[in-house]
Automatic annotation (TrEMBL):
Signal sequence region: 1-19
Name used for this protein in its record: ABC transporter substrate-binding protein
Location of the SsuA/THI5-like domain: 42-257
Keywords: Signal
Domain of life: Bacteria
Keyword hit for Signal: yes
PROSITE patterns in alphabetical order: PROKAR_LIPOPROTEIN
GO biological process, one term: thiamine biosynthetic process
């Protein structure tokens, strides 16, 4: 008996070393759902394509169509019923819910930490944000983005009105820097930062989560509608289980996962995808090896920051209305 117990304990120990193993919810009938990306395919999306390629959706009787945004953004598409799931960002989700009353909920994080920051070339005349005066910033023009750039400027003794702001235009962000269309811009290191490295550029990167209190947040995230959760919880559960399995695989097998992404998006630069995947895969899982888990404290601190910066109209009394870990194989 003692040997049997020891054998069982050994098995459990080995099993637990693999982190949280996604459970499997199989829907009764084949169910078609639409997932809208936030942009063109990149390594933020790798786990989706792994789930497609490995049959994780199919195993759960899900037929998933992946689309890119065109006339509307994912938040609008999911709110309006044009997509069942979408990829958003914590700041976008919060603005849509608080300012516009959108019936949206975050159902999974993709990365456990924000990886964005401001970037400039070493020959731009900028050595730190203290040099932003009379420089040109290239961005998307969103209220959130402008508020953060202005905040960084003020914290470094620069009058934000002295910064010229232009929209990114036809160039990707790194090409825009190279062509001197603007002096600095906001990028996600796992893609544009790696791109700058591969181009051999000499640059500085100002990590926002390292310099702004409570800035660290979940970006990007998977979202769905409240009605989807209320009326079709089993579909949400099956979907979240499949993406969890896909991203967990990508975290542990970055090279193979990158090749799968390239299979579905052959237009992407191979070297960039391979290097980006190697860099970003560790961000998929938390310290206990779980994918997607979101913490109340992160939502609360970041939402307060957004309110203090004037991005949202009112405080959120209960941030748990913005997200749920309910459907994740790993719940905390």
């Amino acid at each position: 008996m003692r040997k049997v117990i020891l054998a069982l304990l050994s098995f459990l120990l080995i099993f637990s070393s693999f982190g949280c193993s996604p459970k499997e919810t199989k829907l009764t009938n084949l169910t078609k759902v639409t997932l809208m990306l936030d942009w063109t395919p990149n390594t933020n999306h790798t786990g989706i394509y792994v789930a497609l390629d490995k049959g994780y959706f199919k195993e759960r009787n899900l037929d998933v169509t992946v689309v890119q945004p065109s006339e509307v953004w994912p938040e609008q598409a999911v709110s309006g019923g044009k997509a069942d799931f979408g990829i958003s960002f914590q700041e976008s989700l919060t603005q849509y819910v608080v300012n516009e009353g959108a019936p949206l909920v975050a159902i999974s994080a993709i990365l456990q930490h924000d990886t964005s920051g401001l970037i400039w070339l070493k020959d731009s005349g900028i050595t730190s944000p203290k040099d932003f005066a009379n420089k040109t910033y290239g961005g998307w023009g969103s209220a959130w983005e402008n508020a953060i750039v202005d905040y960084v400027a003020k914290e470094n003794g620069v009058d934000p009105s002295t910064i010229k702001k232009v929209e990114l235009g036809v160039f990707d962000q790194i090409t825009g820097l190279q062509k001197k269309v603007y002096d600095f811009t906001w990028v996600y290191y796992g893609w544009e930062g790696i791109d700058a490295e591969l181009r051999g550029l000499k640059f500085d990167f100002y990590s926002l989560r390292d310099h702004i209190k409570n800035f660290d947040h979940y970006t990007p995230i998977f979202i769905t509608s409240k009605s989807m959760i209320e009326n079709h919880p089993e579909i949400v559960k099956a979907f979240v289980e499949a993406i969890s399995q896909g991203y967990t695989y990508a975290a542990k097998n970055p090279d193979e996962a990158a090749k799968i992404l390239l299979k579905y998006a052959p237009e992407l630069d191979k070297n960039l995808v391979m290097k980006s995947q190697e860099w970003i895969s560790p961000y998929y899982l938390d310290e206990s090896g779980c994918f997607g888990v979101m913490k109340e404290s992160i939502f609360r601190n970041f939402t307060d920051l957004m309110y203090n910066l004037g991005i949202i109209k009112s405080k959120v009394n209960d941030v748990n209305t913005l997200f749920t870990n309910e459907f994740l194989p790993c719940k905390k």
